[in-house]
Amino acid sequence: MKTRTESEPRAQHAAWASAIVCGLLTACAVTPKGVRDLPELPAEFARDLAVARTAPVLVTRPAAAAAPTMSRPAGTPLPLVPSKACTSIYEGYVTYPITVCHPPNELYETLDLSASEALPATRGTTVPAPRHFKLTAHPRVRLGLAWFCTVRSGPWYGHVEGAQICNANPNVRSFKAELLGAPEPVVVLWSGTLNDVPAPLNLVAISPTGEFCICCSGTMCPDGRCVLNQQQCEVMPPALK
Predict the structure, then answer these.
(1) Is 241 inside a domain boundary?
(2) DSSP 56-117
(3) For 180, how many CA atoms within 13 A lie in the half-sphere containing its CB?
(4) How far from chain centre, in Å, is Cα 122?
(5) In a domain, 15, yes or no
(6) Exposed, middle or buried by CB within 10 Å (0-12, 13-18, 19+), for 3?
(7) Which residue has the higher pLDDT, 70 or 137?
(8) What is the pTM (predicted TM-score) of this model?
């Protein structure tokens, strides 16, 4: 029967230490110095990272936000003529920081880490240049194996809708912005006016492209009026007689 000597625990600790050092050295060997020397990805860009739907990478995927709620103030009488709510549509280019992080692989050797220039100004707004970072503090990142991350702000193609809500303040709209050209779909919701868009979304070059309306009650006539019943559509307003 073998007896356990005092030197055995020390030998085991030394073996574990050697294994850890070996792992770290191996990680250093497969991670280019250019990636190791990059700054750590800031928390603001790492907060919404999740596995992409179509590739084995981490990408910005903000959690879906609850739609803003709006209601008519208590005691406000309903209009005698049925009101209508209109939705304005805007399309164009927006900026929004999207992070994409790639795991260590053989393509590391082909990375171009040279400084990028900011994109030309659009309507007085300069699009930030792509920025490079490393990611080491994340549940999917193994010890010592840094991921290579790029943060791009676009510009991305965006579709924005601003909807009036029936029985609510018509000057306060419910907005929904969809980034259609980003690596992953991004939806941003807010209420108020178009200028109340929350950061980091920036509507750098969007224009109105259309509008559609619905009647909050009653019926919509062919000329766009809202009336209580269809027969009233045949009665022209005084200004149109």
Answers:
(1) no
(2) SSEEE-PPPPPPP---PPTTPPPPSSPPEEEEEEEEEEEE--EEEEEPS-GGGGG---SPPP
(3) 9
(4) 20
(5) no
(6) exposed
(7) 137
(8) 0.71
Tell me which residue range forms the domain holding 175. 28-72+79-107+121-230
Tokens standing for residue 116: 């990028």
Please write the tens of the pLDDT for every residue from 118-174: 455 445 567 888 999 999 888 878 766 889 999 999 899 999 999 999 888 888 999
Strand order in the sheet with 58-60: 49-51, 58-60, 98-102, 147-152, 131-135
pLDDT for residue 24: 39
Residues in the chain: 241
Specify which residues 187 forms β-bridges with: 178
Count the Cβ atoms, other than its own, within 10 Å of residue 108.
16
pLDDT average, residue stretch 13-22: 37
Copy the structure tokens of residue 165.
């809500």
pLDDT digit string, tens, across residues 71-121: 555 555 555 555 889 999 999 999 999 999 988 775 555 566 555 554 554
Q: Is residue 159 part of a domain?
A: yes
Domain count, the chain: 1
Note whether residue 196 is domain-resident. yes
Spatial neighbors of 43 by CB under 8 A, at least 6 apart, are none
pLDDT, the chain, mean: 77
How far apart CA 217 and CA 231 sit, in angstroms, is 15
